[in-house]
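Support reply, case 0932

Customer input (verbatim):
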Amino acid sequence: MSIRSFIGAAGMSVALTAFAAHAQPNIPPSSPPGYSSAPAQPTPADQSDRLRQGLRLRPDQEGALQAFVAAMRPGPGEADRLRDQARLEASLPTPQRLDAMVARMDQMRAGVMTRVRATKTFYSQLTPEQQRAFDTLPPPQR
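Our regenerated output:
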């Protein structure tokens, strides 16, 4: 996968998350503790290991890897915040709802740009061989 595809996938992921939260303001409560119908999400440690092994990172690249993984992680409570915004916006008159939608899209773009900068910074720390390997990695699972 090329870096453009990776960045595009990251941006699309953010946009789809926001769209899903907006389109479904009455999301049912989550499953009881200890029960999950979906496979476990990869942890930041899993993502680090996947990149560390797939790119054959050197010990001196560990700091760049950790900064990259941290930047890719959604903020705490991001999904809840988007759901709350969607509920609030549903009660607004159309002009205000549209303004809120534009503001939300601006926030999402800022988040995507943060991830783009983090990806470029990490990529610049890789050797040409590692960059080629990075370009072919599948996108991270969420």
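We compared this against your earlier run and they match. Two observations from our side: Residues 94-124 form the longest helix (31 residues). Helices lie at 3-23, 44-55, 62-72, 78-90, 94-124, 128-136. Please reopen the case if you see a mismatch on your end.
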